[in-house]
Amino acid sequence: MIDDADAADGRWLALALERANPSKSGQRVIVSLNQASDFPLSRMDARHVIDILDANALRLRPQEIAEATRAMVPTKNRGRIRDLAGGWPVALDLLCAWSATTQGHCEGLSDLDIVRESRLGDFIAQDVLPMLAPEERTALVHASMLDTADTDILSGIAGQRDDGRIIAELAFRLRGLVDRHDGQFLLQRALRIWLRDAVEAFDGRSRADILVAMADRCSEKGRLGEAAVLARMAGDSGRIRTYARAHGALRIWIVHGFSVLKRLLDNSSADDIADSAVLKMIECIVHLKSGHIHVAQELFETLARDVGTTHPLSTDLEIVRVTLLVYGCSLERTDDLELLKRITDEQADDAAMRTFLATLSAILNCQRARFDTAIANLIDARAQAEKAASRYNLMFLQMHEASINLAQGKLKQARTCVTDARRRWQQEFAHDVGVETVIAALNASIEFESGQLSSARNSLRKSANRMPEAEAWFDIYFAAYEVMIRINIVDHGIGPAMAAVEDETRKLRAQGLPRVSDLIVALGLCAAGEARLHGTDVPTPAHWTIPQAGPTASWQEHEVFTIARAYACYFDRNIAEAWSLLDAAILGAEAQGLQRSRLRYLLVMFALASAEGEAGRAKVALRAAVVIGAASGMRQIFREIAGRRFAPMIRALKDDDSLTEAESGFVAMLVNRLQERESIASGKLSRREIEVLRTLEAGGSDKQLARHLGLSEHGIRFHLKNIFKKMGVHDRASAVAAARKLDLDADTSSLR
């Protein structure tokens, strides 16, 4: 073990090791020293004559950290202790020992408190810092104030001294405590906390002056989130107003992402916000993205009154208004697209603003079923986002493209877009929960359309269950809420599903989203019409009315309002009007490329014609629906809308010679799914499996089910496995839902 390389004669030691050649004798030489580069043993190491034991060899592996914390740290505190310790053996020993003696009471303690109480701070002060020269300590203190330190920031804050170069050298000497990754330097967490909060810098300036200098440097380099935190730490949050004004609210959102906007706002005081129109706009956007639409709209209207039409921010405010419209507010004007085009022309040289404007245009054109124009907008938005290095907007453009593909019935392409967006989110923006909500809503719609109900349920937990207090624009509300209503019907029946719709409409109106509320009321009326057509009369609240689609209505509104009105006409015995509505809607959807809507119109036409005994009209509608289903992969909606008259008609289509190979395969798949369900209903499940299913509906663990039925837990799991296989499902909720839909309780005569 070599503690001081300068005190040993490395040349003679290397020669002795080479002549001894321990590898020939089967022996092993391990050399432990502070810094391998300080000792001339590289030739020995390269020839594998010796093993160098340095910081990399001492770094703890994740398994070792997990084992140590599992043995000594309470479960609820393990993650925090692991983060503080990292791969540093001394830190882990001290933190685990402290946790064991104090029973790990971390509540109310800051990270600095834990570092102090565990005596890890004393170790840093007594064993680490004395190894460093004053300028090295100062450079480390400066680096500790940044989320991630890099030479670009550090080199500009210390006058003649180059902190960036010093940190780069320390990354070699203190490997394991200061690590380099892709040009950035990461300090071990406990060391960073101690340096930042308990150690003074040594360059003659006050802490506040250093923090302000670093904040200004971060703002210059576009690291606005860190700039805001540093300015607040310096007690000068007023500088955040300057940073916000210099960069602009919309540009920060576009280029840097929502989390940076929120950090700017969170580190500003109430007085800062009151004195800055840009910070007020940021506050509006933060509430918008957080799902507090009514608050965002109120802030926008107040700001619009205060700013007026001649203020430099008036154009930005118009863009915020259109953004609020996209998110579901009723702030539309008939010339919104023309307005966006005019502003885009004015911002010809600003790539960041142009990508945002093109994105808004794409969303509005998509909502109004102008898909060719929307795709052209997306292409332009991508090109400008690349120029502006706006990776955040590039991620969202994948989601907007998925929305277009869903409307056009292109499930495969939509799934690819969502997968790409999820990958980018996980790699770069995983802290943004709003993005996860949007991705989950799109995924729920895709999985539902393709008949993957278990996956759709999982996605709903991360989308519709978070709404309306979550990020979502109009298309996303529709994607999540339509699936939510239909899954609720499958899982709980039509009555509870309608009650859930009523609860959701109240929330939406309270959130300032009456337009979205009207949309899901119409979805509820569509579901109630289907149920009534299939023999279940469901009362709906008297105030549920079908709105009229206005001049700027979306394709989603046109779709559900038309279907709800068709059912209303049919049940009022205005059958000719129902046919007329659907015929016009089918032609219009075909002209616009709205294959998703066209499929639904055709299936409603089939269901109504079948109920009226108009076999010819029903067959034509079903035949056209099969063409769309085969091309798109949308199959679940056949089961949802077509009803009990679907089986004989779809079987008859098997013998239709005019079907293409793909269409014949699609029909065969639908028939096979029907046969699976019928074989279950006709007695494929055993009596005991039926009992397990009935008990499962009441809920409970395997142990509770076993106790209730007088079986072992192994027996319960065995029966569940068989039930899942026979019913073609993958989880308990799906099994219960399928059983309820088959009404197994009503018919036990065929049970084995």
Fold and architecture overview:
By secondary structure, the chain is mostly helical. The strands form two sheets. It has a three-stranded antiparallel beta sheet with strand order 3-5-4. The protein has a two-stranded parallel sheet with strand order 1-2. The model is unreliable at 745-752 (pLDDT under 50).
Draw up the topology in text:
Elements (H helix, E strand, L loop, with lengths): L9 H11 L8 E4 L9 H5 L3 E4 L1 H4 L3 H11 L2 H11 L3 H14 L8 H7 L2 H9 L5 H11 L4 E2 H4 L8 H11 L4 E4 L2 E4 L1 H10 L8 H14 L3 H10 L5 H9 L1 H8 L1 H9 L3 H5 L2 H13 L3 H15 L6 H13 L9 H11 L4 H17 L3 H18 L2 H17 L3 H18 L4 H17 L3 H9 L12 H19 L1 H17 L3 H20 L21 H17 L3 H18 L2 H18 L2 H18 L3 H7 L3 H7 L8 H24 L2 H11 L4 H8 L3 H15 L4 H11 L10
Parallel strand pairs: 1-2
Antiparallel strand pairs: 3-5, 4-5
Helix proportion range? 55-70%
Name the overall outline.
globular
Q: How much β-strand is present in the residues?
A: under 5%
Q: Roughly how many Å apart are the termini?
A: 77 Å
State the total count of DSSP E strands.
5
Radius of gyration, Cα only, in angstroms?
33 Å
Q: On the 0-100 scale, what is the average pLDDT? A: 85
Estimated structural class: mainly alpha
Assembly status: single chain
Brief overview:
69% of the residues lie in helices and 2% in strands.
Question: Notable features of this structure?
Answer:
752 residues; mainly alpha; three-stranded antiparallel beta sheet; two-stranded parallel sheet; 5 strands; 69% helix
